[in-house]
Design a protein that fits this description.
This protein is mainly β. It is built from 1 helix and 10 strands. The protein has a single domain, classed as Lipocalin. The longest helix is centred in the N-terminal third of the chain and has 5 residues. This is Lipoprotein, putative.
Length: 159
C-alpha cells in the first residue's frame, strides 16, 4: 500500500485544519499475538507556530500512567511532511494523499529500565463526521512487535 493509492479518495484529510484546536483519541495496543496490552485516551491541542503544526498530546493509560509528547510537523510541499518530538529518534517522515496520511518514525520507548528504538509505520484515514482512524505497526529489527489502533474525534464535528 502506498499513500499515492489514495490520491482521489475522500473525504480529504487536511492535517493543519483537522488538528488545529481540540482533538480527542481513544486507543489500544495489541501485542503480536493480538492480545490487548494497553488502553488509553489522548487529549490533543493543536496550533500553528509559524510554518509548523504543533500537537501537544497528553496520554492517560487505563493503569493510571500519564505521559506527554509534543510533535512539531512541517509541511515540505503539497504531499510531504517532516516531524520532530523529544522521544523520536531523528526525523519523522509523512506523506499525505486524499484521505490517507502515512507517517513513519522511530520512537525511543521506555521498557522497564531500558530504552528501545521502535519503528512505527502509521496510517491515518479520514472518515465522515470528524473521525480519523489510525493504525500503526510497531517493529524492531524488522520483527513486528504489535499494533496500535486509535480513533480521533475533532471537537465540534458530528455528534
Amino acid at each position: 500500500m502506498k499513500p499515492e493509492d489514495f490520491r482521489d479518495s475522500t473525504p480529504t484529510l487536511d492535517l493543519e485544519t483537522y488538528f488545529t484546536g481540540q482533538v480527542r483519541a481513544w486507543g489500544i495496543f495489541q501485542d503480536r499475538s493480538g492480545k490487548i496490552r494497553r488502553q488509553f485516551t489522548v487529549d490533543i491541542l493543536g496550533y500553528m507556530d509559524g510554518d509548523e503544526l504543533v500537537l501537544e498530546e497528553d496520554f492517560v493509560y487505563s493503569d493510571g500512567e500519564e505521559s506527554r509528547r509534543v510533535w512539531r510537523l512541517k509541511r515540505l510541499d503539497e504531499h510531504h511532511y517532516e516531524g520532530r518530538a523529544d522521544d523520536v529518534h531523528g526525523v519523522a517522515t509523512g506523506v499525505l494523499y486524499g484521505q490517507a496520511f502515512n507517517f513513519r518514525y522511530t520512537l525511543m520507548l521506555e521498557v522497564g529500565e531500558r530504552t528501545w528504538r521502535v519503528n512505527f509505520n502509521d496510517w491515518m484515514f479520514m472518515h465522515e463526521d470528524g473521525v480519523l482512524i489510525n493504525r500503526a505497526e510497531m517493529s524492531k529489527f524488522g520483527v513486528r512487535l504489535g499494533e496500535v489502533t486509535l480513533f480521533f474525534k475533532k471537537e465540534g464535528h458530528g455528534t
